[in-house]
Design a protein that fits this description.
The protein contains 17 helices and 17 strands. The chain is an alpha/beta fold. The longest helix has 28 residues. Bound molecules: zinc ion. The site of zinc ion has 7 residues, from loops.
Amino acid sequence: MVSAIIEKTMIIKYFILFLAKQIKRFLQLLNLSGGTAFPGLLVEKMYPQILDDIAMNFSKKIILISGTNGKTSTTNTLVNIFENSEISVISNYSGSNLKRGVISAYLDSLNNFGQFIGQNSVMVLEIDEGVLPQISEKIKPDTIILLNLFRDQLDRYGEIENIRNTWINTLAKDMFINSKLIVNADDFLLSDIADSFQGEVLHFGIDDQLLSEKKENRITEVSYCYCGNKIIHSVRYYDHIGKWQCSVCENKRKTPDVLATNISLSNNGIKFNLISNKDSRFFVASSLGLFSVYNTVAAFAALIKLGLDTEQISQAFDANHQIFGRQEIFDINDRKINLFLVKNPAGLNQVIDSLIHEQHQKINLLFALNSRIEDGKDVSWIYDADFESLALNIGNLVVSGERRHDLALRFTIAGVNNFDIQENIKKSLSSIISKSEQGSNIYLLLTYSAMMDYRKYIAKISGSKPFWHKLTNE
Ligand SMILES: [Zn+2]
């Protein structure tokens, strides 16, 4: 009787997995969202125990990446390095970072009959901050990378204090005693999470006095230690990230185990020296901005903890370093279209800095702001970002997206008088292309849903494959 029930449950399970796999393949054939979220959602609803299967099948081979900014680029860096080292990877490409995205990624490790064939693969998953506790408790990762915490999409999760508290409560549990935590030493909001973690902790960070933030007007979102006293920074790289210590108690930044020094930032990319306790090595990458240095160092720190040395990392990195980094570049009408995801003040300020860094020409800019659930309904964060620095460097500007009028007002307040407001993707792109010179760079700043829509449209008209095809080689 019992065995008959088990058998029936197994048949239902394999049927659900078979169905989900076929749907995923079908959606990918149609180029729909890379076939990411829906098949996962289907399995989540019909067979919620799937997360136990993931934990069992991938035991000790799961890396989770979370934090407000940089998840996708850190994930892609790790995936690329594994692939260049000929290690097979299962990942939630395209940033579908809720439970359904994780399940959908897992489908790639099953054959058409729902049987697990990913014995030789590692799983690298970016995880939304809000669901990190729930997912990490279920799938028991070997490694968790925490990048940073900034104010983001407040309407979805409430204050970042809530996220921080759930992270502390979950990650302090005994069940993680055999896991590793790779954490940003320069973000003091992560320090008590690291302190209460039971397993091994490895800190990464940046040591470069010359990069100290010079713009004091930029907001520091949270500046108090858990003892209630002020946090002070001897060096502040951006926002609340830097070399910090409490003005009263003993709480202070831990010395990073893996760190970047001698950093150089330019329009062509980043250069830095990576120092670990074993050795040091110089790296060059085409991604832009200080945040890219953090993302790259976070990925390298995880790899070092997993047993790779900087020589191996360097070889895998050099093999294909042009595909690293957050921003993608497309050619349209002899213009270079550069795409940047923006979603909160700290991240946008970093993008602004990398655009105006050593920039001698005025910038051609298209900014599209949406306010769907995945972008965050509240767009007031644009008032906390440094549009004023951007305004000084703008040549041509087009604003678009559902909240284009909010953007128009923000740019006007920042001092830009001459710009174009366009209601859709096609018109906004033709407008900025017609204003800019041949051979020039055009920068697109896009919120999450705008990024998905523009990327799809641009891939179509430029004849490039959508990015999930590039990543999965399909
Ligand atoms: Zn304190």
